[in-house]
């Protein structure tokens, strides 16, 4: 309820979830969103650094590819940055990839797992269907291409379907809850909690990247590699790197203005 109450809201928090920001409207690019949401995130992270510097931070505010680097810069300036405690929530991409794959493969979605790597916007979202479990043998290359595209464009599909009345709220709430719950399990010492998340990473040459992450008492216990990629996925990885790089740099530049 206003900035003067931020301290009361944040003090003593172990986990802070940031869904703040304006949703996408039809015809709005992620760039239009950027300046509004980036400013909100910068303000909230300044308060987190002050009131609960050791909390795990779950960044949902879009564009995640830029808002996570913004948060990192704010925390660095405040002297409170711990890369193990900052997460970009990309679980919605995983939820979509699992749902679309399960529908196509005709298996219950509850038993499906699909890692999604890269970033959290358009072409930077790379579902690794070659590593999906259970493996569906009946899917053609064209099916995989279509599933990949649909996973990448899921947000736009919802915005258009709602015809200006909003964006993906229910599925995002579900995804946010799944990831927050995983973080809390990790903090509580539940073994082997693994989720995909956009974190500081050495998996590629980029400073931030989404991949599987093992969660624990310190937040990120281990950033897991990409595993074996097929040729289609390798192409996708090459294609996403330049765009993801520029989004990360844009966030860093904004934070330092």
From TrEMBL:
Q: Which residues bind substrate?
A: 24, 30, 62, 96
Active site positions, chain numbering: 120
Localization (cell): Mitochondrion matrix
Which residue numbers delimit the Lactate/malate dehydrogenase N-terminal domain?
Answer: 5-88
Taken from the record, one Pfam family name reads Ldh_1_C
Residues in a coiled coil are: none
Instruction: List each copy of the Lactate/malate dehydrogenase C-terminal domain by range.
Output: 90-254
**What name has this protein been given in UniProt?**
Malate dehydrogenase
